[in-house]
Amino acid sequence: MAEIRMPQLGESVTEGTITKWFKAVGDHVAEDEVLFEVSTDKVDSEVPSPVSGYVAEIRVPEGETAEVGAVLAVVTDAPVGGGQPDAQAPASTETSAPTLPAPPASTPPVSDRPAAAPPVPEPQAEPAEATTAGAGVPAAAEPAPAGPDGTPRPADATRGRLMSPLVRQLVHDYGLDVTQITPTGPGGRITRADVEREINARGATRRVARPAPTTTPAAPPVGQDAPPRRAAPAPRSGTGDTVEPLNNIRRRTAEHMVASKSTSPHAYTVVEVDYENVERVRRAHRDEWKATEGFSLTYLPFVARAVIDALAEFPHINATVGDGELIVHNYVNLAIAVDLDFEGLLAPVIHEADDLRLRAIARAINDLATRARTKKLSVDDITGGTFTLSNSGSFGSYLVLPIINQPQVAILSTDGVSRKPVVVTAEDGTEAIAIHSVGLLAMSWDHRAFDGAYAAAFLAAVKEVIETRDWEAEL
């Protein structure tokens, strides 16, 4: 028998939320086969099983949070015989009620009946536990509390139901009747997946609204009364709408981006870059590179290499803002924004990228992007960045103004490159029109750290490296 514990997912991470089990009780799992997915406030990761065997218990269901080192599941060498273990068996939809583990003698049993059944004990803390000796006496029925918009919330129906606080909040927010939700968690527990399945099945049902933010009208002219304040209407789902709860990475992204806009006074600087010097090298080595490295040679590693060199000349851009101070870093940890199939965004980090040349940078970018999309990143892979590159150019974007990746002071967007007519100057000073590969580089930066002249000089240095370096020798 082996206990599967919550792994240490990074130095600063103390807990994680189980978002998905890939195996059920009774299933066989091979060593290094993905067993579950865990979400932290930094990254979602798929965790492989350290042993081979049969899943005998799942102690932390989907949607629950556990501390690092906590036992999540038990794997045994022998198959789980005679059905699944009592406490961990999934709730059956063919029987009247799931079987719960017997509580201690000092704790009265918890009812799992719906609200329409006889009243259940009123809990003191968690709904699944009674904490006083007299709690076994049925309490007088109370009216269901109203939601923020006055709609009754099915609080009574949730009493005695096994679910996490997060799942309970979802039930309340969407005005769901828990008696209509089929539990699939251990011991009859309602999981987040169960609730989301019910939400999707009832997509046309009006969601219980949260308090709407109020708007502040402009001050009226002198001598006139101010108009009454009105709250902006809360969005509601209607016929034909599909309600999709935000996943963990969308919620975290929202939190970080809103915090960044409220923390940093964002300013923007944009330059146009002639990539023809890079394009000649890419065309000459494209096929050989793909055959040797196994991935395409894009513009991104060239830009990354130019940025690293320019940061050495403009170190205040490779910095973070502290408490009344600017912390200038003497190394470059280059973060690369990676799209996760339109489901979210991560910025894994190439640590000490200033020690790498072009080919090594390209390999590092490809490795991080691959591991990000297959959920193989650790927390350490996405922390410690000092400057970020956001690459929307692969979609042909013209100009993107990204939001700063806190606590950094700048982020650079590499936009689409296209063939355009440009003026070229020969060595003798004569000018001519030629067709070159041209694109924009746009930088969002924190005005607390430096001013516009410094930002413009930095981008001019990046532009010069891209346009004039001997990339053939670099490659």
Provide the β-strand percentage band: 15-25%
What summary fits the major beta sheet? 6 strands, mixed
Structural class: alpha+beta
Subunit arrangement of the protein: single chain
Please write the string of helix (H) and strand (E) elements. EEEEEEEEHHHHEHHEEEEEEHEEEHH
Separation, N- and C-terminal Cα atoms: 53 Å
Determine the mean pLDDT.
79
- Low-confidence sequence ranges: 82-157, 208-217
- How many DSSP-defined strands? 18
Number of helices: 9
Looking across the biggest beta sheet, what order are the strands in? 9-18-17-16-12-15
Shape: globular
Fraction in helix: 10-25%
Please tell me how large the radius of gyration is.
29 Å
Short description:
The chain is an alpha+beta fold. Helices cover 23% and strands 21% of the residues.
List keywords for this structure.
23% helix, four-stranded antiparallel beta sheet, 475 residues, six-stranded mixed beta sheet
Descriptive overview:
It is a single chain. This protein is of the alpha+beta class and 475 residues long. It is built from nine helices and 18 strands. The chain has helices at residues 155-158, 165-173, 192-201, 248-263, 276-293, 300-313, 358-373, 452-468, 471-474; strands at residues 2-5, 15-21, 28-29, 34-39, 44-48, 53-58, 65-67, 71-76, 266-274, 319-321, 326-328, 334-336, 338-339, 345-346, 349-350, 387-391, 410-425, 431-446. A six-stranded mixed beta sheet has the order 9-18-17-16-12-15. The longest helix has 18 residues, at 276-293.
